[in-house]
């Protein structure tokens, strides 16, 4: 599994995770899970500065955006 980053905010129905400096962004469309390996959603965009970009994740139905704040996310 590849670490995606930590959710730092929500915007327009998406969870926004900040990628660490030494981590590569996951490909768009990749599934995302939390630390307990529960499916959270899919990567829909990678944006921001090249050195430390952000990843936009569209959550699965029933996944609370508020509950994702501060959560570490991983790509399958």
TrEMBL record:
Q: Which Pfam families match?
A: Gar1 (PF04410)
Q: Name one GO biological process term.
A: pseudouridine synthesis
Could you tell me what this protein is called? snoRNP protein GAR1
Q: What is the species of this protein? A: Halorubrum vacuolatum (Natronobacterium vacuolatum)
Q: What is the lineage of its organism?
A: Archaea, Methanobacteriati, Methanobacteriota, Stenosarchaea group, Halobacteria
């Amino acid at each position: 599994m590849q670490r995606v980053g930590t959710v730092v905010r929500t915007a327009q129905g998406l969870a926004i995770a900040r990628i660490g400096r030494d981590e590569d962004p996951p490909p768009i469309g990749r599934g995302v899970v939390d630390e307990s390996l529960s499916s959270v959603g899919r990567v829909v965009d990678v944006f921001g500065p090249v050195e430390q970009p952000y990843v936009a994740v569209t959550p699965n139905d029933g996944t609370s955006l508020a509950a994702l704040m501060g959560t570490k996310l991983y790509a399958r």
